Amino acid sequence: MSAVAVRASGLSKQYRIGARHDRHTHLRDRMAAAVTDAVRTMIGRRTAAAEASTIWALRDVSFDVAPGEVIGIVGGNGAGKSTLLKILSRITDPTGGSAEIRGRVGSLLEVGTGFHPELTGRENLYLNGAILGMRRAEIARKFDEIVAFAGVEAFIDTPVKHYSSGMYVRLAFAVAAHMEPEILVVDEVLAVGDVHFQKKCLGKMDDVSRQGRTILFVSHNLDAVRRLCTRGLLIEHGALAADGPIGDVVARYRTAEATGEGLGRFSPVARRGTGWARIDDMRLVTAGGVRTGTCAADQDLVFDIDVATRQGDGARLRGLVVELVISSEEGHPLLSVMNVDDGGAQLPDVAACTVRLRLPAPTFVPGRYRVRAFLGVPHLQHVDEIDDAFEFEVMPPLHPWRPYELSAQRGRTCRRGEWSCAPGIVAVAQGTGT
Amino acid sequence: MTTVRAASHVVPVTLIGGARRRRAVDLAELWTFRELLYFLVWRDAKVRYRQTVLGAAWALVQPAMTMVVFDVFFGRLARMPSDGVSYRLFALTALVPWTYFATAAAAGAQSLVGQQHLIARVYFPRLLMPVAAVVTPLIDFAIAFVFLLVMIAAGGITLGYGLLTLPLYTALAALTALTASVWTAALNVEYRDVRFVLPFAIQFWMFATPVAYPASLVPDSWRPLYGLNPMATVVEGFRAALLGTPGPSGMVLPSVVVLLVMLALGLRYFRRVEGTFADVI
């Protein structure tokens, strides 16, 4: 019994769809819903409707973690990894099941939590430490170490609103990394900051694990997961799909992904908006019109997006804007395209249609990309907005594009430039300077 | 080092889901987070005084200006009775605790909604937020209270032993603000209507409280009923303690009872919904 740091038994979490992001729940709506529910119950048609408006983000997940284990949690977007960490760090309660945790939990779910722009770095450091559950004496003792780790010594008495985003993140991570909990829960924080700082963070996590503390680590960076962790948990569709040595679990995850399990699959899990019209499906298609999850860097990216209204009262799509935001695997937005951009196509005056977007090659260097889909009127009306609606992989070009390797280190996007060479040095007319 | 750590201190055990919900307010946990309460209050106070031009003077402006307005309209024009003391002091003595309550209740209602980022990303006892919101305005209250003492001294009134009862009435005001905040903060997370209802409710509450008029206008047989408004007791208590007016006799007990019942129910409701604040906020 005492040999367990974390024991999760049957953890489940159900979300009401829309509840997470709907900021305008009003008593009026709730009363209306209560009446509708009561009527449905009376006429015995309740269950179908009730089930349809909820999703299980996590279903019956059980596992034990021994003290000192370093566990990597992998899985596709929306699989439930973050929900699991939120439950274990007590941010939200599970709908079902229970967990027992021995030791102080430190969570790095999102760094910089509770920083106030008007306060100085020093003040924020104390405040943030207190929010993370550190004692004032403990913070004071580690103060110099934390500031040195963050590399913000010169600015420690400057309000953080004057900090660069890099400094801000470094200070925030430094506080959290020095809290010395028995159990450290880390979610994707390594996606932020520059490469140098990421290395520093990984090093810090190495130290923590060498001190015999337990770590639960969620990341899309599979190499980091393999390097740091000993055991892996694979979460698929909210359920625990594999639990074992990290190498096996990562390999299984990679196979699942490669067989199309995640890639190219439309996944409307994180969805918000009024919903009177919906994006019903979205796919990357090959030249032959077949659904795919991959595309060579020198082939056009062609997306088909099915949109349709939900109400039968003659609502029309005309006037709505379709936007795709394509991000890197780590979540940095790279490109936004809208159907109302110059040269785009207005949605027709119909109730349903398929929108096609062609991005002429080349656009991206090989790697994984995530797509956020938006339907609505920007700034005015969010009809349907889906984070991580879709993930695809750009493969190396079929015909050599460059005699050297295409590397994301030199930029994610790839463009055909117009080059020419004039012999001799061309005299340049002096401009006015503007 | 690791072994020493393990041997030298008791490892806390946290239970999630299942049994945890059934427990009442976890006072031991609140105590371990007491420094966070201190930092939250300190942050709010610091930010407030750093971003405003007048800083601490704002603590005086509101009660002082309201006193002038009340004095002109109720005191001089309407000739409101004031239990035998100058109407100006009569009003100010009530306005100082009332302003504290109104500020604290408004801040309390917004205390969770205004901290969405914290709540969605890190665990701490959620109850700390309304508590901090109610504690912070005590700083302004202290400043205004000093101003009140100066005005009373200038008005030629000598203070008696009644002064000793003031901490009790202040505590009652804070408890009233906390009770209201526990309810409104939790309701506000799910029902944003609270934001619209609250200013109206506080205004309504002020008229139900003897701020501009004396409680002696209320018939004696109604006084226990009047005591169901704890702020009526607070305001009359302040006047009795500082100005020597008859005081809130017969009102204290109903106030305390109604507060304890409402606070207990509020904490129970808060406890029931706090686990999913992060999902709906």
- What is the chains' assembly state? heterodimer
- Number of helices in the DSSP assignment of chain B: 14
Cα distance, first to last residue of chain A?
A: 74 Å
Question: From the helix content, strand content and strand pairing of chain A, which structural class follows?
Answer: alpha/beta
Low-confidence stretches of chain A: 18-24, 44-52
Whole-number tally of structural domains of chain B:
1
- Tell me which CATH architecture of the largest domain in chain A applies here: 3-Layer(aba) Sandwich
Could you spell the SSE succession of chain A in H and E letters? EHHEEHEEHHHEHEHEEHEEEEEEEEEE
Helix/strand structural class of chain B: mainly alpha
Percent range of helical residues of chain B: 55-70%
Query: Hey, roughly how much beta strand do the residues of chain B contain?
Result: under 5%
**Mean pLDDT figure of chain B:** 87
CATH class of the largest domain in chain A equals Alpha Beta
- Give the overall shape of chain B, derived from the CA principal axes: globular
Task: List the uncertain runs of chain B.
Answer: 1-8
Number of strands of chain B: 1
Q: Give the number of helices of chain A.
A: 9
Largest interface: A-B, 50 and 43 residues
